[in-house]
Every structure is written in structure tokens, then in C-alpha cells.
Amino acid sequence: MRKFTFAILLSGCVLAAHGQTVLTLDSCRALALRNNKQINVARLGKEVAMNTRKAARTKYLPKVDVLAGYEFTSRDINLLSNKQKNLLNNMGTNLGNQVGGDLQKGITEKMTELVKQGAISMEQAQQIGAMMQQAGAPIGQYAAGIGNTLGTAENVFRVDAFRTDTKNVFGGAVILRQPIFMGGAIKAANAIADITEEMADNDESLKTQGTIYAIDKAYWTVVSLKHKQKLAYSYRDLVKKLDDDVKKMIRQGVATKADGLKVDVKVNEAEMDITRVDDGVTLAKMLLCQLCGIPMTDQITLADEEGNGLEKSNVRYTDYQPDSTFSSRPEVRLLQNAVDMSEQGTKVIQAEYLPHVALTGGYMITNPNVYNGFQKRFSGVWNVGVTVQVPVWNWFEGRYKVRASRAATSMARMELSDVQEKINLQVTQSRFKVKEARKRLTMAKNNVKSAEENLRCAQVGFREGVIPSTDVMAAQTAWQKAHSDKIDAEVDLRVSEVNLEKALGILE
Predict the structure, then answer these.
(1) 207-219: per-residue pLDDT in tens?
(2) Cα distance between residue 362 and residue 381, in whole Å
(3) Lowest mean pLDDT segment, chosen from 354-363, 375-384, 414-423
(4) Which among 5, 120, 148, 452 is placed 20 to 30 Å from 132, CA to CA?
(5) Are 138 and 198 in a shared domain?
(6) Rounded to two decimals, what is the model's pTM?
(7) Do 439 and 488 have their domain in common?
(8) How far is 224 from 488, CA to CA, in rounded Å?
């Protein structure tokens, strides 16, 4: 498919002496393959598919992510409740009051018990109570001092040990994931990527063959019209020569004015034919230039325009082998790719509903860190684990998707089989058309010989006066038609051979 290189292009596109570009069939093909936008799009599609395949291969490899962040919070994290903080704040007062109160209560209860027992009188009890109260005051003050000291220590303790200072939090992590078993999804995804790359290559081949086919038809159309253009001028010259002869005969009185008018009509018809074929050549060359990707205003000359006949056929084909043809046709390969991709798509769907196993690991750091009492410094921890995901219930979603995918695969297989049958018919028809075109060309060549001899005899008879001008015009018309049919047969043979090569998948 790549036989048409730029070297061919440079060698085929030469400048003639009159400044026109002379193009061969191969150079036209090379220009079209270089400039055709659809082919260039297909080549870019191959690049996309290649990189997609490389990306699919990475699914087997572990993935590493690095995360980092900062967060500001409006409040710190508190390790104590409000109730606990209030108790700690009033610890000194509560302890002093409790010690003093308990001491006074104990002395009063003891004096009352001694008075009831008659051990001491009420007056003695009052005196002793007064003395004990005076002695207990320092003890209460001491207890209160101890409580106040504890309250002060508690405040320090609460601030330093229970305040987390977590309004500004910095964190980071490195996370690693290594797939172990994904239900066959990774393998199927890689197979799909490989198929996609093959499809891109087959798509390029399809567009290349289509471009070459269009170029060949346009090229031989131009060649055919150029030959018919020469034929139109030759026919006009014949008719004008007859017109001159008839006018001389009219002046000599051996022909009528009606004979002259009949010849004049033929001359006008010949001039109209020239106009039509000239326009046809111009439009056909513009189409060829457009297909080649060159300006349509360029003046081009085709190598096969010259000469009396078209270049000899060189079609390449042997006995028809269906399997070989199927493998050569990009349309068949694309349909086979579609079947293969549908099968792999089914595997991907099935993998979604199978257990997934992956190895995980990483390292995480924070500041303040929770690993040493919310210490204001970075600290982290390693972690390694295994994750297992097992689908349990999905309302038969997976079953329905698998059935739909398998049905799509069956459809693709049926389309492939249908196209193969049509290709068999296409190849058979193309082979018959080639044989028919060869027979038509042989018959057209024989008709040309007969028409030339008929025209010669008519011209001789007209000069000798034994054949009227109408018979000469009829012979000229037959001569023109015979040559036109021969040109059509030659071009039809070339086009039918191109059709056969395309049907066989060997057009390149």
C-alpha cells in the first residue's frame, strides 16, 4: 500500500516544455495519498490508537498518588467536656471548703455526744468548741492554700496537656495501589486497545483504496475525454472537408443547395460536439486536481493523453481465493475487528460483577500529629493492606448487560457473514465484467477497421460521383461512432480491471 512514495511523485510530476505539469497515474495516486484529508485523519487516528494501547498497558502497573493539604478550623479539638473543665477550675475552692466544713462538722458532732454522755457540761463543751475552732482555722486556711495551689497547677496542666491547638492542620500522604485481580477487566481492556489499533490501520487501508479507486476513475475519464476531444476535431475536419467539396459541386451545378444545407447541419453538430467535449475535459481535469489535492486552476497534462490508444492493461489477479480475498479487504477486517471488540466488551462487563482484589499501601503525615498527643511537628505512619470488593446483589443487572453484549456480538457476526457473501458476488461480477470489456474492445477494434474502410469507399465513390453526400455523412458518422465506442471500450476495460482489483483487495 505504500509503494507510492514521494520519489515516484517527484519523478512522475515533470514539467513539459510548454509549462504544463505532466502527471502519470502513479504520480496522481501519490499526490492524492499525500494530500487527501481523510487519509491524513486516518493516520492521526492510528497515532491515537497507538497511544491508547500504550496507556492500556499501564493498567498492569501500580499507581502512586501524592496528596498534600492545609486546613483551618474555627475551634480546637477539646479532650475535656465543659463540665470537666469547670470542676478542674474550682478544684481549690471546693477542696478548702470541704476540708474546713468537714472539720467543723466533726468537732460539733463529738462535743454534742460528750455532753449527752455527761462527760462534760454544756459550758465546757462550748469552751472546748471555741478552742478547737481557733485551732482549726489555720488548718482550713492550709487546706484552702493547697486547693488553690492545685487549682493553679490544674490550669497549667489543662492548657499544656489538654489543649490540642488544631486550628491549623497540615497533612500529606503517598498512596500506592497495585491491582491483583480485576475479574479480567485489565486483560480485556488491553485486548480492546490492540483491536482499536488494528481498526485504525484497516480504516487507513480502506480510505487509501477508496482514494486510489477514485483517482483511477477520474484519470481514465480524463484520458477518455481527451481521446474523444481529438476524435471530435478529426470528425469536424472530415465534415468540413465534405462541406467544402459540396459547395464546390454546388457552384459547378452537380449538387443541390439542399445537399449543402445537410452538410452545414453536420458541421454545426460537429462544432457543438467539440464544445461539449472541451467543457467535459476541463471539468474532468478540475475533478482530478481536486482529488490530487492540487489547485484546480493548474494546467495539467496526463501521460496517457497522447497516442492513438490507451496503455495496455496490466491488471494483476490470479485464481479467486475467498479466504485470501477476505483477509485483503479492509471492510472485512474492520467487521472482524468489530466482532472481536464486542467479544472483549462482554468480558469487560462480566469483570464488573466478579471479585476485585488490590494491594494498597502508603505513608501519611500530619502536623499537629495524633501519634504523640497532637504534637506540633510532622509525624506519620506507614500502612499496607489488601482490599477485596465482592458484588453481592445488583438485581441481575450484570446478567442483562452480558446478554445484551452477546446479542450485539451475534449481530456483528451476521453482518460479517453478509458482507463476505456480497464480496463473493462482487468478485464474480467483476470478473465477468472484465471478460465482457475485453470482448467489447476486440469487437470495437474490428468495427473501427470496418468503419474506416467504409469511409474510404464512400469518399472514393463521392469523388467519382457515384455516391451522394448523404452516404458520405453516414459513413463519417459511423466512423466517429466506431472510434468513440473503441475509446469507451478501452476505458471501460481499465475501469473494470480497477473494480476487480478493488473487489479482490489488491488495489494499491
Answers:
(1) 999 999 999 999 9
(2) 8
(3) 375-384
(4) 148
(5) no
(6) 0.72
(7) yes
(8) 7
